[in-house]
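INFO  loader      accepted 1 record
INFO  loader      residues=62
INFO  predictor   begin
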Amino acid sequence: FEIEAEETEDAIDCVISYQELSQMFKARKLDLKRLGETAFDGTEPKRGRLFAISGGPFKSFD
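INFO  predictor   done
INFO  writer      dumping tokens
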């Protein structure tokens, strides 16, 4: 896992799975489908967008 890799030592504070995130939303009764659309904040994700794919965190350190 990326959190155990030498390349990311001291770079990752915690890890949460999508399943755990979903459980947190349900526990707090947050329904993301009911949220309205908002304007884009203007900050481009750049390499941060890679985090959502397998191996993405490693690729973002290139």
